TrEMBL record:
It comes from Cribrihabitans marinus. It comes from the Bacteria. Belongs to the initiator RepB protein family. Pfam families: Rep3_C (PF21205), Rep3_N (PF01051). Residues 18-160 form the Initiator Rep protein WH1 domain. The lineage of its organism: Bacteria, Pseudomonadati, Pseudomonadota, Alphaproteobacteria, Rhodobacterales. This is Initiator Replication protein.
Length: 419
């Protein structure tokens, strides 16, 4: 099992502010593919709340397929992935609360079964206890793991993420690192040259491009041979991109529209606004407008934002006239009104996100028969084909049907959405 498991639906007590360094080391002996690694994360997410209190756990096979990101009809791949998890060993070696050494080993899954569209599975009691211990695992966002296209990249992310608060993984021997990446036992990767070129460099690039952390490897040598590796870790400011509700708010801002009018891509425009703020970006747009024609608007704006271009110092301007003061006050009032509207939209987005999280929790507690009934009942109440098609595509996360979804579940659970 990966060394940190989080899914974005885990909230509250499951999230902690700090992660202690070197609390535990749990390694896997098998060579999990990207799909199998994602599957193990989703299964743990589904079981987490009842990990130590329930002997077995169940999840609808279609829900499992949706969260992992593969064809829900491809049961052969699902069976093969579950078999791989049952055949893979997890090994831990750590100090307990009294400082005594503890070693243990267990299969990742003690059993798995597919029957009538339901996946049932279990962890050994010893491994379940370790997986549930919040001191061992940091929390990983299930949306972020979907961005990875290689198992080595996701494995490196999982093994680095729990150290984000400490800023470094600490030194791992190259032998331990090969094991974490699932390439131990390969004669090809006994060569550090091959390990660096094929595993370390591509995995680091993928983590830095697709996740909420930025990592940098450092090496320690004995003579000319590399013996140890560690990763320096910092939070990725572009993570704000994962949190933006792109359908509202940012795309309605005047500064966003101005950036798009200058040829800035949608992603880059949202990134600049998220990282630097609306006012700062608008200042750079205004500055560029005062420079006349520029060869490349996007290139110039990028440099202006990065280098903080500002107009040169000028003599103190004369006292403004009453008319100018009145106009400035009017602009300030308009800006305050826009700020209030933006804050209101932000609060509405946050409230909607909160309610969607509650809906997911409510759905997760329903058995498969109830879930099917809920969907049919809700679909029957939708008026247009557009709304029904959007619900078929996005399920209970359908933004087009948000109000209807909340009303539906509020009727079933009257107090569900109360703070």
């Amino acid at each position: 099992m990966p060394e940190q498991i989080d899914m974005d639906r885990l909230t509250g007590a499951l999230r902690r502010e700090t992660v202690k360094k070197n609390v535990a080391a749990i390694h896997i002996s098998g060579k999990l593919t990207l799909l199998q690694r994602k599957l193990s994360n989703v299964l743990l997410l589904n079981a987490y709340d009842a990990l130590t209190s329930a002997a077995t756990h169940t999840i609808d096979a279609r829900t499992l397929a949706m969260m992992v990101g593969y064809n829900s009809n491809d049961l052969a791949t699902l069976r093969a992935s579950l078999r791989a998890l049952a055949e893979t060993l997890a090994e831990w070696d750590m100090l307990d609360e009294q400082g005594r050494q503890e070693w243990g080993v267990s299969s990742l899954l003690s059993f798995a079964r597919l029957k009538d569209g339901i996946c049932e599975y279990a962890y050994s009691p010893a491994l379940a206890q370790k997986l549930h211990d919040p001191k061992i695992y940091a929390l990983i966002n299930v949306h972020i793991q979907r961005n990875f296209s290689s198992g080595h990249g996701l494995a490196l992310y999982e093994n680095c993420y729990r150290f984000v608060r400490t800023g470094s993984t600490g030194w791992w021997s190259i032998e331990v690192f090969r094991k974490l990446m699932g390439v131990d036992g390969s004669s090809y990767y006994e060569s550090f040259k091959h390990l660096n070129a094929k595993i370390i460099k591509p995995a680091v690039a993928e983590v830095n491009k697709n996740s909420d952390i930025v990592i940098e490897p450092e090496f320690r040598k004995k003579g000319r041979a590399v013996t140890d590796i560690r990763f320096l870790i910092r939070e990725n400011p572009q993570m704000a991109m994962f949190q933006i509700d792109d359908s509202e708010g940012v795309r309605n801002l005047g500064v966003y529209k101005a950036l798009r009018g200058q040829g800035v891509s949608d992603r880059l425009a949202r990134q600049w606004i998220a990282e630097h703020g609306e006012d700062y970006v608008q200042q750079k747009l205004d500055y560029m407008a005062g420079q006349g024609d520029v060869k490349s608007s996007v290139g110039y704006l990028s440099a202006a934002i990065r280098e903080d271009y500002r107009p040169p110092d000028r003599p103190e301007p004369p006292e403004p006239s009453p008319e100018a003061l009145a106009a400035a006050e009017a602009r300030a009032a308009e800006k305050a009104r826009e700020d209030r509207e933006f804050a209101t939209r932000a609060a509405e987005r946050a409230e909607r996100a909160r309610k969607f999280e509650i809906v997911e929790a409510l759905v997760s507690r329903r058995n498969p028969t109830q879930r099917d009934t809920d969907k049919r009942l809700f679909m029957a109440g939708l008026e247009g084909e557009l709304e029904r098609e959007n619900f078929r595509a996005h399920g209970w996360r359908s933004g087009l049907n948000a109000a209807a979804i909340f009303a539906f579940w509020e009727e079933l659970e009257p107090d569900a959405f109360q703070e």
